Amino acid sequence: MRIDILSAVPELLDSFLNHSILQRAQKNGTAQIIVHDLHDFAENKHRRIDDYPYGGTSGMVMTLQPVEKAITQLTKERHYDEIIFPTPDAPTYRQSIANTLSTLENIIILCGHYKGIDQRIRNHFITREISIGDYVLTGGELAAAIITDSIIRLLPGAISDETSALTDSFQDNLLSPPVYTRPADYHGWKVPEILLSGNHKDIDEWNMQQALKKTKQIRPDLLSNDDAVIE
Ligand code: ADE
Q1: Dist CA 141 CA 5 (whole Å)
Q2: Percentage of the chain with pLDDT > 90?
Q3: Is the dihedral of CA 85, 111, 142, 22 positive or negative?
Q4: Which of 7, 39, 120, 162 is the most buried (most CB within 10 A)?
Q5: Which atom of ligand 1 is nearest to the CA of 136?
Q6: Is the peptide bond before 66 cis (omega within 30 degrees of 0)?
């Protein structure tokens, strides 16, 4: 899978993309993640990519020209399944959307900055808008990083234990049960006996009960949620 990220501050993504699972996925060929600096596409002397908004509101707005040039260049080279714009005024991101995106071949994520982007970019280029939550970030980079991470970890080859992504919280609309590791007794804080029993059927049942209990307590809304796993 290939993800192209268009950003006004590409340095923000450097460390995040070049460590841990995302780094390994890129090294072993599971994913290609390319960050482009939008200033490189600006056709003006000062490489500006923003301008004052019409109508006199405050803040700056990202201009059409650099975004159009970047997207036109990329889409000439290959077909993109989605061109995504992370923005707070959009439907909220969820695991089922990550599942869908992980089945695609090529996507572009356009990071907004300043007060927003010219609406015509959204009208003419963007195929999907995503909010990562009801709060406002300085720019789209953190949202792009979150979306990228959630997709890449689902790709076969990204995580060494392939089943572990499938047992994540949310994959079945349940939060994950608690997990424990050695030692079995730490200063008297004991691991639940059942996990030491070796009886996998009972352990599966216990995990399911714990997941249900936790979901009821913390996120009861998930239990009345009949979302598809893919959307
Ligand atoms: N950009 C700024 N805030 C955002 C949010 N909550 N979700 C996605 N993109 C954003």
Answers
A1: 9
A2: 87
A3: positive
A4: 7
A5: 3
A6: no
What H or E segment, with its residue span, contains residue 96? helix 95-101
Each residue of 78-89: pLDDT tens digit? 999 999 999 999
Ligand 1 pocket, 145 CB below 6 A? no
Residue 13 Cβ < 6 Å to ligand 1:
no
Peptide bond into 178 cis (omega under 30): no
> Which of 20-34, 155-169, 182-196 comes out lowest in average pLDDT?
155-169
Q: Are 113 and 66 in contact (CB under 8 A)?
A: no
- CB-side neighbour CA atoms (13 Å) of 55: 7
Question: According to the model, what pLDDT value does residue 169 have?
Answer: 79
Average pLDDT, rounded, for the chain: 94
Does the beta carbon of 86 sit less than 6 angstroms from any atom of ligand 1?
A: yes
Atom 6, ligand 1: which residue's CA is nearest? 88
Task: Provide the residue type at 185 as one letter.
Answer: D
Report the separation in Å between the CA atom of 177 and the middle of ligand 1, taken as the mean of its atom positions.
Answer: 29
**Least confident stretch, 95-104, 112-121, 179-188, 201-210:** 112-121
Output the CA 31–ligand 1 centroid distance in Å: 24
